[in-house]
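Archive transcription. Copying these from loose printouts into the bound notebook so they stop getting lost. Printout 1 of 2:
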Amino acid sequence: MPNPQLPAEMLDNIVDFLHGTKLALRNCCLVSKSWIPRTRKHLFADIRFFCPARLRLWKKTFPDPSTSPAYYTKTLIIGCPHIITVADAETGGWITGFSRVVDFGIGGRGFTVTFVPFHGFSSVIKSLRVSFTVLSPPQIFNLILSFPLLEDLTVIADGRVMAINDDGSDGLSTAAAQLSSLPTFTGSLELPVRGGIKAIAPRLLSLPGGIRFRKLTLGWFDEENLSLIVGLVAECVNTLESLDITCYFHGEPIRHLAPALISLLF
C-alpha cells in the first residue's frame, strides 16, 4: 500500500490504539509518510537517557534539534547528567528540542553536576524529580525555580548534602526567589529522605509567594527535621488533601505524630 488514504480521524484512532506497542508503532512508520507524525507522538513520548552511550546515539541520529522527534517528548529522564555541557543547551544543542516536556527527571550517583543547561529548557514542565547521592541545595533550588508552571516536586538525596553558599555558583543568582513568575507548587511534594528535607524544605518555606501543595510525602528522621515537617504542613494546611509521613528513629519506624503536627491537623 504505497500511500493509504484514510480519514485523519481514523488514522489517529488506529495509531492511538497501538500507543503501548512500540514494535507495531515502528511498523506504522513504514506504511506511509502521512502516518509518521502521529506515530512519533507515541514512540517518542517517553525518552530516557540512563547512560552516555544512549545519549551519544541520540545526538548522532538526530543532529538537528529543529527536526528532532524530541518535539513529541512529554517525559524526559536524564541518568547521566555528568556528561551534559552548557553547549548542549545553546542554539543547535540537543536539549533545545525537548521544549514540550511536562515531566522531567534527573539523577546520578557519586558525582556533582551543573544544572545550568536545563534551566527553563521547557516552559511547560509541571513535574520534576531530582535524585542524587551528592546534592548541592542552591543548584537544585535554582533549577526548580526555572520552571514557572511546576506543580509536583520530588527531591531524593540519600547521601551527602554539599555545604555550598547561596552565591549563585550554579550560574543562576539565588535572587531567583524574587522572580516575578514563581512555580505554582499546587501538586505534590515528596521529600522522603533526610537530605531532601534538609536541602529543600527551608528554601520552599522562605518563598515570598508561599506553597500550596495538595499532597505531602515526607520522611521524619529526627527532632531536627521535625520542625521543617511541621513548617511544611502548616504552610499547606489549607490546601492539603493527603499527608504521608514515614517516621524513622535510629532506623526503626514509630507510630505516633508529634503534638505540633496533631494541633495543625485536628
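Printout 2 of 2:
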Amino acid sequence: MNALRHLRATAVVSVLILAGCSTPHGQPRPDSEALAPNEVLDFTGLYAANCAGCHGPEGRGGAAIALANPVYLAIADDAVIRERIANGVKGTAMPAFARAAGGLLTDKQIEVISSTMRSRWSGSSAVERFDPPSYTATSSGDADRGGVAYRTYCESCHGQEGRGGSHGSAITNDSFLALVSDQGLRSIIIGGRPELDAPDWRSNVPGRPMSEQEVSDVVAWLASHRVRTPGQPYSASTDLQR
C-alpha cells in the first residue's frame, strides 16, 4: 500500500514538473504580461483608477454625485455622459479624461466606462409613470420665481435662504457654488443624491413633482448667490499692502 502511494505521488510530481517546463526558462507566461495603460478595457479597473476617487466605489457617490443613480442615467443620454468624461466640465472639479483634451484615456476606454455604467446601473423603471424634466434647460430660469419654488420644495431640508438645515447642507455657500456648474445643480435637483438621502424632483413634496420651469428657476436662484471671490472675506482687487 505504501509503495502504491509513493508511485502515485511520484506521478503527480512528474506531471507538475513537465507542465512547468512548457514555458522556456527566463520567459514570462503569455498570460502574465501586463497591458499597457492605453490597452486596458476592463471597466472595474478603469472606473477604480479614474472615477471612484470622486464618484465613489461602484458609483455610490462621494465628493461628486453618485453615477449608479438610475434617475440620473435616465435623463443623461450616452452622448452626454461620453462628452462629460472626455472633456470634463469647465470651472468645476470634473477634469477632462480624453487624450485629445489632455487626459489619459482613449476613445475606446471612455466608451467602455460610459456604456458599462448604463448597462450596470440604469433601470427601466427609474422614472416609470413620470415624465422627468430634461437634462438641459429648455428655457431660461427666473431667480425671483426660483426663490418661491425653493421655499416650496427645498427649504424644509436646506433651511432658509439655503443656509443649511437639520436635514440638508448649505447650498448657497459660496465655495460650494464655485465648484458646481448650473448643469450640475440641475442634475442634482432632478436626480437627487440618493447616497445622501436627498430626494429627486418627484419627492420633495409628496404628490407634487417639480415642473421643468421650476427646476430651471431654482437653478437660477441658486446661481444668483455666486460671488466673484468665493471663500474670501475680501475682494480680489483689495490692496492688501495698505
